[in-house]
């Protein structure tokens, strides 16, 4: 039996193309799609390259953050800490905070105070007075005010603000100032029927913020006012009521009587033709009985010429202080003349009066030339 090699000697194999014609055609068909496959491979390679570069970039950034986090950064840790301290918000109760109103409704207002949570101003905390809407207190969107933190809403951690607390503090401070300066204020009394709605002069006696207690006194204000009513002084008054015998004038909480005979040098038959309730005028103090609480007034002494109070009351008002000064000088001169007459008959007093009307001392305590009373006019009959 011939060997296997010998059996195949001389045999010639056909090329694959002749032996497998269908496969050639198939290969040609596949070749038609060769270009898109190459393109897809190229795109895939580019994406892979981009991913590698991005990964490398991230790795480098991570390494910089780990080894040199502040390299190339101008904002230092100290700057950051300073900024935190500067903008640190204190939300403790009782602290004040400035904020801007950005929303209002019938119940209150929302306020931006740069805190972590929102802030709310209830309508009852918007004013020291009772109001129905915050806008009645001037609280509108866009306005910026200083508020005080009075609480926190546990439901949403929002802060509760107040303006009323600040206004109360300012009011107490003003009361303490008025008490220290002993200032007379006016208030309306609503308990006594005869004083209902009437302005009364008052002075502070006690200001106790801790006990929410204010004590004022009309008697103290009246006593201090009466002490300032010097005879011959001019005060501003308001006509309260008219009577057949004169007019009652309110002079700083004290009622004085302007008798009909003291209105003008000319006869006044009907007071209503000269004065009306509510009129403001200047009057002179003629007398003051502190025990009985009576003050007598005059406009007659303030007339530049007799009858001006009837014909030209504006002139009397304008010239009141000038005419009062002239009247006081005449009174002083008349009193000096009366004292001089009395001393003429009392040589033991230590004074002497010459025939020329010169009142001189018998001692060296007074000027040697004495006091010249020769020009003292006679006192007017009041």
Automatic annotation (TrEMBL):
Entry superkingdom: Eukaryota
SMART domains according to UniProt: S1
One biological process term in Gene Ontology: translation
Gene3D superfamilies found in the cross-reference section: Nucleic acid-binding proteins (2.40.50.140)
The keyword Ribonucleoprotein belongs to this UniProt entry's keyword annotation: yes
Domain S1 motif per the UniProt entry, residue ranges: 94-164, 232-300
Chain intervals for the UniProt region annotation (Disordered): 1-25
Keyword Repeat: yes
Record's protein name: 30S ribosomal protein S1, chloroplastic-like isoform X2
Entry's Gene Ontology molecular function annotations: mRNA binding; structural constituent of ribosome
Pfam family, any one: S1
Recorded family membership: Belongs to the bacterial ribosomal protein bS1 family.
UniProt KW keywords: Repeat, Ribonucleoprotein, Ribosomal protein, RNA-binding
GO cellular-component term (any): ribosome
